[in-house]
Amino acid sequence: xxxxxxxxxxxxxxxxxxxxxxxxxxxxxxxxxxxxxxxxxxxxxxxxxxxxxxxxxxxxxxxxxxxxxxxxxxxxxxxxxxxxxxxxxxxxxxxxxxxxxxxxxxxxxxxxxxxxxxxxxxxxxxxxxxxxxxxxxxxxxxxxxxxxxxxxxxxxxxxxxxxxxxxxxxxxxxxxxxxxxxxxxxxxxxxxxxxxxxxxxxxxxxxxxxxxxxxxxxxxxxxxxxxxxxxxxxxxxxxxxxxxxxxxxxxx
Length: 252
What we know:
- It is a single chain.
- This protein is mainly alpha-helical.
- The chain has helices at residues 14-28, 34-40, 46-73, 77-91, 99-109, 114-119, 125-140, 143-149, 156-170, 182-203, 207-235.
């Protein structure tokens, strides 16, 4: 955790803690990853976009389960009432009319089979490990750390703002309907991150707790970065797709 390992050693004010957390995002959020840069530059093939959508589904499908874990750990009914909105954002009211369903539309819009995506059986081992590590973190670390790990949402509007217009402009087979997942997130993510940030700043008042929340956000950034690393290794120039993982039918 170079650069942030001792950030709270002498204690931080709430304003300074927030500044450090935002600096973590500025340096380590996955909008800095080369794969994202290639995506927005229009340099990815359709096969590579398919692999991205299929693997990212594993993460999307895990989010409401992760949030349900966080809700179950809190003894504060006001906190639970606020946090469970995240579950509804992804599951919807029926289980298939929220963000997960919209991500499936993205995947099928890119030509993938819905059942294959939902099964998650073709995901990369690196994806599986990253997603598993995140839900384990939120289950086994403190509630404060679990909440802090969600603060990557502070930076999601930036990556969406880059990704959506670039994909519409540079990939002829991508439509606004294909990318329908992202538009609600422009309102949901700022709402959720505002609550999470206020919670973290209120409860992380001692140096040890402050360092823990900084480390939690670093960890979450690492999870997202590792997922893109795995995709780049398997479907980039090296083309080292592991056994059992998604193999595109046609490399466009």
